[in-house]
């Protein structure tokens, strides 16, 4: 295998990897959309740390 063939193999591998990555992103988006249509809204809320609301100081006018 000479240098030009090696570059061709590297280029083809990069293109195939990029195509598979784009396909995977598209499939994940389709799956997410399907889940949004099927699940009720309570299961779609983002999970994170809940913070207490800041206390408001009484105003002395």
What does this structure look like?
With 61 residues, the chain is mostly helical. The chain has a domain at 3-34. It is 59% helix and 0% strand. The protein contains 1 helix and no strands. It has one helix at 3-38. The chain starts with a helix and ends in a 23-residue tail after the last helix.
CA-based gyration radius: 25 Å
DSSP strand content = under 5%
Percentage of residues in helical conformation: 55-70%
What's the N-to-C terminus distance?
85 Å
Topology order in helix (H) and strand (E) letters: H
**Main pleated-sheet profile:** none
SS elements, strand count: 0
Number of helices: 1
Concise summary:
By secondary structure, this protein is mainly α. The chain is 59% helix and 0% strand.
Key terms for this structure?
59% helix, 61 residues, mainly alpha, 1 helix
Set down the secondary structure blueprint:
Layout: H1 3-38
């Amino acid at each position: 295998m000479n240098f030009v063939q090696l570059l061709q193999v590297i280029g083809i591998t990069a293109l195939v990897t990029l195509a598979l990555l784009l396909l995977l992103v598209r499939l994940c988006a389709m799956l997410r959309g399907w889940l949004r249509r099927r699940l009720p809204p309570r299961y779609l809320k983002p999970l994170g740390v809940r913070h207490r609301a800041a206390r408001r100081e009484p105003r002395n006018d």
